[in-house]
């Protein structure tokens, strides 16, 4: 409508002006037509009168001439009629003939002519004709026409002409607007089609030659900027280091603040006698995220779970870490015993953990746990909002402890970029639907701008769950979900570890490590060793691993006394009865196998249920021959990657469960089904026998992959995607303020320039 008015009014105006300008011409033309008409009428009249007048003259009926003229005058709608004799004397005339007009007046002399005659009563038009009788010229017949009639008629013509122009103008405008509307629709249709096909450039080309052409230029320039920027940051060309992460933050995110929310803190302070000890937890999540915050600064918001945590914070509950070289802050959130029991042990680890891991342990869902989970998510969301110094921070939410938090934060900070990473698998919709609060969980997660999983498979399971349980718009091609006016991109980002390793982890040489661990465990120097290092968790396949050893020693007795498995198991979630039972089973099975196959101090399984610090774990990675990862289900499993990273001698063999995310990235490992005990035993045998050349070939390939796809790349890809999302949102905001609101909004939602950072 606005467009119509904007177009029609000027057009009508212009046409009216044009009409007004050409009116005098039209007027002149019509006047000349009228005069010609008058002339010919007068001519006809004069001819018809000639005979009658000749007779009246011949018969000398002079008294009848003037009445005759009067009759003709009235009948012919003529102003006045007169007859001049050949000596130019006005002999006969009607009463209206102006007395001032004489026969020798210029207007009445000459041949039959038409002229305008000025008389005091106004303007008259004369038409003069020669009157012929039988004996020659009688005189001149003079008709005087009232020109005021002509002027009136001309004014009327002008008025009609003006109306005509206005109406024509309106008609032209209307037709033009209809045609323009149709072409606009066609343009939008074609533009949409191109954009839906993901071809933004083609879409922009459609704008050429249209009202939006100047905008097309701007859009193309902007898109090119983004594309160039992306190219300059082509992740495969980048060397991913803490410095490149810092650069992304500085350039792509213009130094925006980064907040991490994770249940587990990277450093906890614990009382040991009258001293305070700092501990780093056995957590893959911490292993991955800690180097990132070191690189980017920012704040890590976590549950303050250490026994001396309260003693070590400032009045804002902050503590600077790492202790040796502080570069970021932990903001500790305090939970009551009841909150911890319901939220952490209960809903997170007795509910969601077994729900998402297919490890044949039934999830337990209690209403009281759920309520605690909701409350603690609120508490952390409040902490995030308190910590945020700007309206649009980048918030990295970690794991299944905070499924509700993204939505809660989104409601308070609508412009925040929330990247949620789900570190564990996501089950299929049937399994997920077991959770009584499936809808709230999905809605909570869809508060995120980006939702990440380790594998595409888990992304698909999530999208399928949304499809099954929510009324949301899903675009499977771009893996985006539109729910409640918000868009969430569901992407896979396989997590990794730092590369290069912190030198503290490789302080001792490989051979020093070999000697050290054999000495520490009172083992002979030639004992072949496999190792496992895990949290003491039923998903890790520790029992299965022990059964492999049992089977190996049964089927390959040549390894008796020559081979042992060292199992490091960090106690975990030990308040949960499943975990207590599991620990008892692990201990029992280890001692059963040891008593079955052990002799003279020889133990096939060395079980170490205790916390080991990182440096110690790396000594084991470097000093053992084989590393066993036999998880029954695992999002990624970073032990596998750490083992490979620790082997800078390129030796050692990794046996890896096919049910880990890592198995998709490290096919050079010996991939096994942990439930297949004989296969596991055979893998152990093959690993122990593997020639060094083959070990090296496999190890090199795996090291190359981890070097390239390290944790900086994992985080960098998410941050780059976050930066892209923010740029897109800003662009959309800018465009919304301008004329581009006319463009289909999908132009901002899909782009061929969207970084395709998948691998
Ligand atoms: O594997 C999932 C996970 O959250 C990891 O990210 C982390 O390493 C582990 O669980 C830690 O568990 P918790 O914090 O309960 O000890």
Task: Walk me through what this model shows.
- The chain has three domains: 2-147, PAS domain (Beta-Lactamase), CATH 3.30.450; 245-339 and 366-492, Glycogen Phosphorylase B (Rossmann fold, 3-Layer(aba) Sandwich), CATH 3.40.50.2000; 507-709, Glycogen Phosphorylase B (Rossmann fold), CATH 3.40.50.2000.
- Helices cover 49% and strands 17% of the residues.
- It is built from 23 helices and 23 strands.
- The strands form four sheets. Strands 10-11-9-6-12-13-14-17-16-15 form a ten-stranded mixed beta sheet, sandwiched between helices. Strands 20-19-18-21-22-23 form a six-stranded parallel beta sheet, sandwiched between helices. The protein has a five-stranded antiparallel beta sheet with strand order 2-1-5-4-3.
- Helix 16 links the parallel strand 19 (563-570) and strand 20.
- Helix 1 packs antiparallel against helix 3 and helix 8 packs across helix 9.
- It is rod-shaped, with a radius of gyration of 49 Å.
- 6-O-phosphono-beta-D-fructofuranose (F6P) binds next to helix 7.
Can you give keywords for this protein?
ten-stranded mixed β-sheet; rod-shaped; alpha/beta; 759 residues; disordered C terminus; six-stranded parallel β-sheet; 3 domains; 23 helices; Rossmann fold; binds 6-O-phosphono-beta-D-fructofuranose; Beta-Lactamase
